[in-house]
Structures are given as C-alpha cells and as structure tokens.
Design brief:
It is found in: Cell inner membrane. Helices cover about 75% and strands about 0% of the residues. By secondary structure, it is mainly α. Helix 2 crosses helix 3 and helix 5 crosses helix 6.
Length: about 140
C-alpha cells in the first residue's frame, strides 16, 4: 500500500474519532486530558469512555504487531532512558501548555481557538528546533 494513503487514512480516522467524541459526549479528544482525568482524579465520574478511548488508541498497534509480525514503525533509535526522559518532558510540556497536540492541534485548531493555534505553533517550532539540534549539532542521524 502507498505510504501517503496510510497517512491519509490515519488522519481521517483521527479526525473521525475527535468528531465522534465531541458529538457523542461533548468532550475534546485531547490525550493528555483523557489520561490526566483517569490518573489524577480518583473521583472521576466518567472513567468508562476514557478507558475505552485509550484502549482504542493502543489496541490497534498491538493488533498490527500480531497480524504483521512487527509494529510497522521500526525499532527505537535511542535507549529506553532517553525515551523515558522524552516522555517526562512531553508530560511537563502538556501541563505547561494546558493540553497536547491532539487537543490543541486537532480539536483546538478546528474550533479556531487562538490559544490552540499559538500552542500548536510552539509545538511545531519546538519539534523543528529539536530535530535541527539532534541531527545537525549533535550529528545524530536517523534513517
């Protein structure tokens, strides 16, 4: 299958999931908010949809791995401690930015939220700077 077709299909599915969540429950499909609602609030009144959303987010990658014999994304090119540190920094960033790329980038921009537009621009610029620094200043090359 063509890579652009898989990417397009993935984007359509992400958009569809966001629309369905907003239309059915009136909730924004921000992953950090969904996970944060489960993890930090013991009295969450609506854990069912949060768990279902997260299972639907994770289960397809496991199914792909079992059916195809691989995840389709290749092996990590950095060590587990670096990935853990990166995950921690992403978590801190989502707290500082009051949301993540899915909440701001997919849902917020679709609602024309100025805060989400600015947040997404900051996310994108930070990613570009990170790639520049890791590839060109530290000489880390990725296939």
């Amino acid at each position: 299958m063509f890579p652009w077709l898989l990417s397009t299909l993935g984007g359509v599915l992400i958009g569809l999931a966001a629309v369905l969540l907003m239309g059915s429950l009136g909730r924004i499909a921000g992953i950090s908010g969904i996970v944060g609602g489960l993890a930090s609030t013991p009295s969450v009144s609506d854990p069912g949809w949060r768990l279902a959303f997260l299972i639907g987010l994770i289960l397809p990658s496991f199914a792909l791995s079992v059916l195809s014999g691989g995840s389709g994304i290749g092996q990590p090119t950095v060590s587990w401690p670096w990935m853990a540190a990166a995950g921690l920094l992403v978590g801190i960033g989502t707290r500082l930015g009051s949301g993540c790329t899915s909440g701001h980038g997919v849902c917020g921009i679709a609602r024309l939220s100025p805060r989400s537009i600015v947040a997404t621009l900051v996310f994108m610029l930070s990613g570009m700077v990170t790639v520049f620094v890791t590839h060109h200043l530290f000489g880390t090359a990725h296939p």
